[in-house]
Design a protein that fits this description.
about 140 residues; mainly alpha; about 75% helix
Length: about 140
Amino acid sequence: MSTRPTKVSSMPNETEGMWHQAGWATYAAIMLFGGGLVGVVNGVWALRYGAREADLVTAEGNLELWGAIALLGGAVMLAAAIAVFSGKNWGRWAGIMIAVVAIVWNVGWAEIQPIQSLIGALINISVVFALATHPVTVKRGT
């Protein structure tokens, strides 16, 4: 029989008390991860086929540059998503910054693709909301 004192907590179950915040962080991480995967795939495609398809896709014919930007942005989004999944604070801030840049990017395309731009901006606004208003510090149960 153990006579060790038990830990007294201000919250009956600390892990359970944080789960209401974890849903928003999971949503934001999934959105960042999906956007990162799309960016990486588009970037790889553009770098691989840029010389052949440039005239069909862009008026400037510089698809390799756009591919490099998409690949780099996608990799950063994937890293931020993994960090948010892991509960890292820098992941939250990186995700917020990436989502803000994506909002501006989407608004810039609004004249050419208004519906897609609006949907993209709204999704990124929800990611900023999820990461900025609900800091997640979910503790693992013992």
